[in-house]
């Protein structure tokens, strides 16, 4: 199904060509002055220079041609050369009816689907998720859903950190606390226990303790480095312990991510890339991409056009040790072998921009990926407290993500119980969904690259540009439709071409849905979905307050309103699904 804007552009392009002007000047945009017109074409202003004519004169030539179009009720040339366009209500209604009958409300899937890898997790095992993991998870999940909606083959990877010093620290501390475990007996040849010798709670206490202790005890830190080395070189007992750490951590991580309605297709780890490192290093040496600099093996990635310093990409340290660079490049090698992606998207803190610039350049320069492969760094800003500083707990610590979710759920629960009559169990379930929506929408409604203030009062408000407001609108529509069914109404009717004043903004917003989803995909911008869904919800609520829907005595008119509500509900729910937000049945 063609986008509404494309249909209008076809009309204006044809008019410019018929008048003897280049087709490029027939572009149409949504008007920034809705009080004057719905859409606008500024092509006459641009054409004036090329054709040496006054812009208004060109616009006035276009008016009589465009006035013959079946789409436009009114075409007007205004100084200094704008074309103001107002569409026919029957054409808007016909398009919305076509949307209602089409898959995805007419949003077309890509003709040539791309394989897209999205790297959007990055937690370390043995550590709890904290607020610093929120943005990567919710932005990455939304981008994954938007790309899938556009028809692409999308693979979401959590990419766990599981192969660094934290493993050595945990092993060292376990050995100190439980030295008799078989994992530390070099002569043990039997089967190791199936159950882990620790719970997730114990594991989450062990790591911070060991990390803090190592900072003041150099001999302990050296022991942890040695344990890390032995793990990475195949120590049988340490590998068994490492697997326990993975199993216990992943189980807990999945539970926490699921609480956010975030899922991954792959639970790959840093360690999965390790087998690819030796061949990668040898390849970089053999092909002359890497050279020794101050004892380290590096690849120069600076380009002549650079205006700022881009350091070399280090592959091996002077002692031969690998780095994150090495692992990330080896992960790219692995992904090329397993998935042959057309696009890579890394959803990471924007402060890592330089690092990923080095990685991307190295991957391209060294031909680890084809030249045409798209590599996107989707850097996000920080979530700050009301003081403008990175969000902390009241005592100044980093808040665990599950505590943040519980806090916002509690705030929603209190509001529900203040204003609604329902059981505690029912309120708890609604508060869970609405709380997650409040948290995710509060994040996603901001442009990803920008910092934002976490304001629990504003995020949980049932008014304004918030998740609860969007969900409340959905619940309101569901309630109207349920009452209509109870009245014996049917859904056979279509949206009427007899449009009232409050209905028109709703139709105009609906016809922009397909354009919005395409833009959100192209720009990898969930905030575009938020902006649209908020404006659509506003348009509906204005319509609701100004129109007698169920009380309308004209049965045909009432059925037309209901047909419109069905489309609005479907589009609102689709947008929420793109954001990873779930609506309750009532609030």
The 3D shape can be described as globular
Which CATH architecture of the domain at 401-578 would you pick?
Answer: Orthogonal Bundle
Distance between the termini: 35 Å
Major beta-sheet overview: 4 strands, antiparallel
Structural class: alpha/beta
Q: What is the number of strand segments?
A: 13
Q: Which stretches are low in confidence, meaning pLDDT under 50 for 5 or more residues running?
A: none
Helix content: 40-55%
* Mean model confidence by pLDDT: 95
The CATH topology of the domain at 401-578? Isoleucyl-tRNA Synthetase, Domain 1
**Count of DSSP-assigned helices:** 20
What would you report as the Rg, rounded to the nearest angstrom? Answer: 29 Å
Outline the secondary-structure elements.
Blueprint: H1 4-18, E1 29-30, E2 39-41, H2 43-51, H3 55-66, E3 72-78, E4 82-87, H4 89-101, E5 115-119, H5 134-149, E6 153-157, H6 165-177, H7 200-216, H8 218-232, H9 236-259, H10 277-286, E7 290-293, E8 296-299, E9 313-316, H11 324-339, E10 343-349, H12 353-365, E11 374-380, E12 383-384, H13 401-419, H14 424-444, E13 452-453, H15 456-459, H16 467-486, H17 504-510, H18 513-523, H19 526-546, H20 555-578
Parallel strand pairs: 5-6, 5-10, 10-11, 12-13
Antiparallel strand pairs: 1-2, 2-4, 3-4, 7-8, 8-9
Helix pairs in contact: 2-3, 4-17, 4-20, 6-7, 6-8, 7-8, 8-9, 11-12, 13-14, 16-19, 16-20, 17-19, 18-19, 19-20
């Amino acid at each position: 199904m063609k986008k509404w804007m494309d249909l209008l552009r076809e009309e204006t392009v044809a008019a410019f060509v018929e008048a003897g002007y280049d087709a490029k000047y027939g572009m149409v945009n949504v008007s920034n002055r809705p009080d004057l017109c719905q859409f606008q074409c500024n092509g006459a202003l641009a054409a004036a220079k090329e054709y040496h004519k006054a812009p208004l004169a060109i616009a006035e030539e276009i008016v009589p041609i465009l006035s013959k179009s079946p789409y436009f009720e009114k075409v007007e040339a205004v100084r200094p050369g704008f074309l103001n366009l107002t569409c026919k209500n029957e054409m808007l209604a016909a398009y919305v009816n076509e949307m209602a009958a089409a898959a995805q409300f007419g949003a077309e899937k890509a003709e040539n689907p791309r394989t897209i890898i999205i790297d959007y997790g990055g937690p370390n095992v043995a550590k709890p998720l904290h607020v610093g993991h929120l943005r990567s998870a919710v932005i990455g999940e939304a981008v994954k859903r938007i790309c899938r909606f556009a028809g692409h083959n999308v693979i979401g990877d959590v990419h766990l950190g599981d192969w660094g010093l934290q493993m050595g620290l945990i092993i060292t501390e376990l050995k100190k606390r439980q030295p008799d475990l078989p994992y530390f007996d070099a002569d043990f040849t039997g089967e190791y226990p199936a159950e882990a010798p620790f719970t997730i709670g114990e594991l989450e206490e062990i790591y911070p303790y060991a990390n803090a202790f190592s900072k003041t005890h150099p001999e302990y830190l050296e022991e942890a480095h040695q344990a890390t080395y032995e793990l990475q070189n195949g120590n049988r007992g340490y590998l068994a312990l490492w697997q326990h750490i993975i199993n216990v951590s992943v189980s807990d991580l999945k539970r926490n991510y699921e609480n956010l309605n975030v899922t991954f297709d792959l639970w790959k780890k840093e360690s999965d890339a390790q087998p690819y490192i030796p061949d990668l290093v040898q390849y970089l040496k053999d092909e002359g991409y890497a050279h020794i600099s101050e004892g380290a093996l590096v690849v120069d990635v600076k380009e002549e056009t650079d205006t700022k310093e881009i350091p070399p990409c280090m592959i091996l340290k002077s002692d031969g040790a690998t780095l994150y660079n090495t692992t990330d490049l080896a992960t790219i090698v692995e992904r090329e072998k397993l998935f042959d992606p057309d696009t890579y998207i890394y959803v990471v803190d924007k402060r890592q921009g330089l690092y990923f610039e080095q990685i991307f350049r190295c991957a391209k320069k060294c031909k680890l990926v084809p030249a045409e492969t798209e590599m996107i760094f989707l850097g996000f800003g920080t979530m700050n407290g009301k003081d403008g500083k990175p969000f902390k707990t009241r005592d100044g610590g980093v808040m665990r993500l599950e505590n943040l979710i519980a806090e916002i759920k509690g705030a929603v629960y209190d509001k529900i119980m203040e204003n609604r009559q329902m059981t505690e169990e029912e309120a708890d379930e609604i508060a869970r969904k609405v709380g997650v929506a409040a948290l995710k929408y509060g994040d996603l409604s901001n442009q990803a690259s920008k910092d934002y203030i976490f304001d629990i009062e504003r995020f949980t408000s049932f008014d304004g540009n918030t998740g609860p407001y969007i969900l409340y609108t959905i619940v309101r529509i569901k309630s109207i439709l349920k009452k209509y069914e109870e009245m014996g109404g049917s859904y056979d009717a279509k949206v009427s071409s007899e449009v009232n004043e409050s209905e028109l903004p709703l139709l105009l917003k609906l016809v922009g849905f397909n354009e919005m989803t395409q833009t959100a995909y192209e720009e990898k911008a969930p905030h575009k979905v938020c902006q649209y869904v908020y404006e659509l919800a506003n348009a509906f609520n204005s319509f609701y307050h100004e129109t007698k829907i169920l009380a309308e005595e004209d049965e045909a008119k009432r059925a037309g309103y209901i047909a419109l509500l069905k489309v609005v509900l479907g589009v609102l729910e689709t947008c929420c699904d793109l954001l990873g937000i779930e609506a309750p049945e009532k609030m």
